[in-house]
């Protein structure tokens, strides 16, 4: 084949291709080679040593496979002789490479995580949105076998391996340490002959959806909930709240997370002259910084890319004639605090992208879990705004500081969730004693979750002390903990202790009574904690139970230390 014919062939070939001489110098590249450069992130190709080409077996006489190391880019190399005796090599990449560029462009316009993997579990491609959602970058995983990622601790029990095993659609939800919750769907891909070729994994960030649903449920339940309490401290606070409700004075509620600040804010609104106006509640810490101004002040049409064509009113306008409750106000950025102060002082706002001033008539109630010392730090909170809002300060004590409120709350929520789930769960005196002694770091919100957990999970109607200890140790139902959870569960089996590699672990081998399994695990964990910390108080704190629980179990013979 003469030179001109070969040059014409390479130049007009649809697949990426180039010619190189015996020394590796690149003589000619066709236009499709740009796809290879883009995939590899390299510049113009001048010599073969600029690519890590790995040669494979022969496909035919003087035709050999090749691939680029650590990638899925491959093709064929043809060994050619010119009539004048010169020898050249024609490298022709797989035709799918050019189609791959189109696929990449499509993936980049999808607002979900998209992962393409082959039949061996090697990650071939992943779109850029993954960098903002996943706790690792694309560079760390592209070209890697999913099993390597498991070995390195980057993923656990991956959905990709489940799909390779089953070769059918698989679903799974994963909660990452950064707080993101991704709902995945893995779909297998088969060739024209029915051979399995890998699959596509798509992942949707459902963190915000979960948050919105929880907030909606919380708002719906809190709307008609009275603040349950019998303590003198809360009686004084409720009396003060009822007194100031009739005025338009700003109320500033402080207290730990979960003490019921929004319930008190609603009490102010319900007892005020604005009770027939709107009650708008916003968590200031939950709004992205780039959207916070438009959320509060609204925007005019065309104010920014992606804006509603008709514009949108903000929270301050929506609350006009009523009450705006700003929860976690301590999380507002300082520049937004300045703009909010001006709106409060002038009783007027200007929408983003607008020039017209709009008058507002709003009563403000604020809440935060920050301490007074933090709020008086100018680097955290503008002092002029703090003193403008802190007209009626209300400090809600933690539940552990008013223990006489614990049992009334337990009774209220036990009845509430029994009605909701159509159950008749009750607690023994020992179970009530455990609740009464518990420190409740999550306050009323945690207590509510624990009672709901008891009603949902209790195998019988009676909840005793052992079961209550277990319920307190499970963590919150309305938070997704751990690295992941999969909808398909493996069967529960017998508990044994394995001491391989000098590390004690729990193996599950056969079916047994769940209470007995819990007792065995509990004994191991508490015993190890006591051995580690040297005393029962520290051990109890480490495993999340009360010291009296450990003492009681030792005394009754349930626990051997």
TrEMBL record:
Species per Swiss-Prot/TrEMBL record: Gallibacter intestinalis
UniProt keyword terms in alphabetical order: ATP-binding, DNA-binding, Nucleotide-binding, Transcription, Transcription regulation
Pfam families, per the entry: AAA_lid_14, HTH_8, Sigma54_activat
Entry protein name: Sigma 54-interacting transcriptional regulator
PROSITE patterns: PAS, SIGMA54_INTERACT_1, SIGMA54_INTERACT_2, SIGMA54_INTERACT_3, SIGMA54_INTERACT_4
Residue ranges constituting the PAS domain according to the UniProt record: 99-150
Family annotation (PANTHER family): TRANSCRIPTIONAL REGULATORY PROTEIN
Classification of source organism: Bacteria, Bacillati, Bacillota, Clostridia, Eubacteriales
Domain Sigma-54 factor interaction: 227-456
Keyword ATP-binding found: yes
């Amino acid at each position: 084949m003469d030179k001109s014919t070969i040059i014409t062939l390479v130049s007009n070939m649809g697949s990426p291709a180039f010619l190189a001489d015996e020394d590796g110098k690149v003589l000619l590249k066709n236009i499709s080679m740009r796809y290879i450069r883009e995939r590899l992130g390299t510049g113009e190709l001048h010599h073969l040593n600029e690519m890590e080409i790995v040669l494979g077996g022969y496909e035919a006489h003087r035709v050999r496979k090749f691939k680029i190391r650590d990638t899925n880019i491959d093709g064929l190399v043809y060994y050619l002789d010119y009539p004048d005796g010169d020898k050249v090599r024609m490298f022709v990449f797989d035709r799918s490479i050019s189609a791959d560029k189109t696929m990449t462009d499509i993936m980049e316009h999808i607002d979900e995580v998209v992962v393409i993997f082959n039949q061996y579990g090697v990650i071939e491609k992943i779109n850029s949105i993954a960098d903002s959602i996943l706790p690792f970058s694309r560079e760390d995983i592209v070209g890697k076998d999913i099993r390597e990622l498991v070995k390195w601790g980057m993923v656990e029990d991956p959905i990709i391996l489940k799909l390779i095993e089953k070769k059918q659609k698989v679903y799974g939800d994963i909660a990452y340490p950064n707080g993101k919750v991704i709902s995945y769907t893995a779909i297998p891909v088969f060739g024209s002959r029915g051979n399995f070729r890998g699959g596509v994994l798509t992942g949707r960030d459902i963190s915000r959806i979960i948050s919105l649903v929880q907030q909606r449920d919380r708002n719906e339940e809190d709307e008609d909930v009275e603040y349950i309490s019998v303590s003198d401290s809360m009686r004084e606070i409720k009396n003060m709240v009822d007194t100031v409700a009739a005025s338009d004075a700003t109320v500033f509620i402080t207290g730990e997370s979960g003490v019921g600040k929004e319930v008190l804010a609603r009490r102010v609104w319900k007892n005020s002259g604005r009770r027939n106006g709107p009650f708008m509640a916003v968590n200031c810490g939950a709004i992205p910084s780039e959207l916070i101004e438009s959320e509060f002040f609204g925007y005019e049409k065309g104010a920014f890319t992606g804006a509603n064509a008709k514009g949108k009113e903000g929270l301050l306008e929506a609350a006009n004639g009523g009450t705006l409750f700003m929860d976690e106000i301590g999380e507002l950025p300082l520049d937004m605090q300045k703009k909010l102060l001006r709106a409060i002082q002038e009783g007027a706002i200007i929408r983003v992208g607008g020039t017209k001033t709009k008058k507002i008539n709003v009563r403000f109630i604020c809440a935060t879990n920050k301490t007074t010392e933090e709020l008086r730090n100018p680097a955290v909170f503008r002092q002029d705004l703090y003193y403008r809002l802190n007209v009626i300060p209300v400090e809600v004590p933690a539940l552990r500081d008013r223990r006489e409120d614990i049992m009334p709350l337990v009774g209220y929520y036990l009845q509430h969730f029994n009605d909701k789930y159509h159950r008749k769960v009750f607690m023994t005196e020992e179970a009530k004693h455990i609740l009464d002694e518990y420190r409740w770091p999550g306050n009323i919100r945690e207590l509510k979750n624990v009672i709901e957990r008891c009603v949902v999970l209790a195998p019988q109607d009676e909840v005793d002390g052992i079961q209550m200890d277990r319920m307190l140790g499970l963590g919150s139902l309305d938070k997704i903990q751990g690295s992941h959870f999969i909808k398909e569960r493996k069967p529960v089996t017998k508990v044994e202790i394995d001491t391989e590699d000098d590390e004690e672990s729990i193996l599950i081998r056969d079916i047994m009574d769940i209470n007995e399994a819990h007792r065995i695990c509990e004994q191991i964990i508490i015993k190890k904690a006591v051995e580690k910390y040297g005393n029962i108080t520290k051990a109890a704190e480490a495993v999340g139970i009360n010291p009296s629980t450990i003492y009681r179990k030792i005394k009754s013979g349930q626990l051997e230390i």
